[in-house]
Amino acid sequence: MKKQSITTGFQQVDNSQQDFLIQFLEDMAATPVVKESLELQMNLLDIKPGDHLLDVGCGIGIQAKEMAKRVTSTGKVIGTDISTTMIEVAKTKNYNTGLPLEFLNAEASHQPFPDHSFNGIRTERVLLYIPDSPKVLKEFKRLLKPGGKVVIFEFFWDGALIPHPDKELTRKIIHYVADSFPNGDIGKNLYYQLRNSGFNKVEIEPYSYYGNSEAILNIVKKLMKGYYNWASQMKHLPNPKSITGGKCWMKK
User: Fold this and answer.
1) What is the pTM of this model?
2) How far is it, in rounded angstroms, from Cα 143 to Cα 121?
3) CA distance linking residue 100 with residue 78, whole number of Å
4) What is the C-alpha separation between 33 and 46, in angstroms, rounded?
5) Cα separation of 144 and 110, whole Å?
6) What is the pLDDT of residue 3?
7) Buried b / exposed e across 48-72, counting CB within 10 Å, b at 16+?
8) Rounded-to-integer distance, Cα 252 and Cα 173, Å
9) For the segment 234-247, what is each residue's pLDDT rounded down to a tens digit?
10) CA-to-CA distance for 179 and 236, rounded, in angstroms?
11) Which of 91, 104, 203, 222 is most exposed by smallest CB count within 10 Å?
12) Closest Cα to residue 206, out of 192, 223, 188, 221?
């Protein structure tokens, strides 16, 4: 059976190879640079005991669990995800933790909560899969309490830096990856979308996934394989020499 790609898999989790996607989330969450990113996000949320927080696109609940540790027993964290599979896994993984955690199925743009329900809202690597991200941001605005904060972590794929001797092919791969997501430009459009959605104080905190950890290298390899398959089908690799070059790119 052909392995599910990252870009298409998370667009239709319940109809994909779920074990592959779940393992990907676990591997990424365990990567030091990703842990560092989550710590930064939680600090930006300024989580306090008693806070009510929403984690949209929570996946298997790893990050929501860390957030719940900070709100203590007087607060609550709710994780929502469009995938039934992810929510069931999140519930199983957090059964009997004693943490103030709840997991629900919901679309990012249609959350089942009253206005002004949350002190903070977090979402990470989610909006790039949603074509109508402004609709999601307006929903966040509706749900946020006065003085609350929204923290959004998204990629700017066109700005990806991959050191490699084959510059031309590397540029093609980066452009392929950016265009393979429904909302691959979200990284550069998010600021203005937030302002247009009614958020008056918008701050940008640059952050990069960096290093040569096995998890990050595996992501690059998987993306390259996706490009190679696409390019072969579209005849963008027209001759054996180009195909060989594509295969060699992954080994360097």
Assistant:
1) 0.86
2) 8
3) 8
4) 20
5) 14
6) 54
7) eeebbbbbbbbbbbbbbbbbbebbe
8) 14
9) 555 444 344 444 45
10) 15
11) 203
12) 188
